[in-house]
Amino acid sequence: GQDGGDQRIAVIGLGRFGSSLAEEVMRRGWEVLGVDEDERLVQRHSDALTHAAVADCTDVEVLRQLGVSEFPLAVVAIGTDIEASILVTSNLLDEGVPTIWAKAISRQHGRILERLGAHHVVLPEHEMGERVAHLVTGRMLDFIEFDDDYALVKTVAPQVATGVPLGVSAVRSKHGVTIVGIKRPGRDFTYADAETVVESGDVLIVTGRTAAVEAFAELD
Ligand code: ADP
Questions:
Q1: Could you identify the atom of ligand 1 that is nearest to the CA of residue 20?
Q2: What is the reported pTM?
Q3: Which InterPro entries did the record assign (predicted)?
Q4: Most buried by CB count within 10 Å: which residue of 17, 31, 100, 189?
Q5: CB-based contact 196:160 (threshold 8 Å)
């Protein structure tokens, strides 16, 4: 992310993905320009965004006129129309937009965007599908995997971790995971240390190798 400095973002495509992203970025106090060639979508989201425009962004002249070329950050939120997604991404690259995020609807589409030079490619449906797989098959409440096989999960405390201080239950050496913090129902989040005693019903934030974290979350 861009911290501190220039908090402006251009979002091309105001479908479900683009509009949700644009509105969430607005809530973070950023300036958001949303563009879509569909006038109804622009009308629907214009009140919620700093600027909104109806335009076909496959035309590089349009990007210049709208000032998109001057933005420090742009998101290409076009999926279904792969040709448009590719053209808009290459236009933004040609215009020298320093950071470009692009959404892809398939791995092949993602590979093309990466080859073009998009700085970040996201595959929302694939990524969400993989994430939800961990939630539906286990007791995890949330699951985030990092590139290098590490994960951070939110899970209900297994019995083996409760009742004694973490220093005694030795979760890290026995299970290869680190309990980062605890959220007790109705209480604030607290960081965990060797003296922390996990209670039954606590929600834990746990990190470690994906396989270790998964195994820990499956314990009784
Ligand atoms: P989602 O699944 O998030 O709704 P879509 O791929 O269906 O994503 O939506 C992409 C949006 O991008 C649509 O609203 C479409 O009108 C818009 N779009 C497609 N091509 C262009 C283009 N060349 N310029 C501007 N907007 C475009």
A1: 3
A2: 0.83
A3: NAD(P)-bd_dom_sf (IPR036291), RCK_C (IPR006037), RCK_C_sf (IPR036721), RCK_N (IPR003148), Trk_Ktr_HKT_K-transport (IPR050721)
A4: 100
A5: no
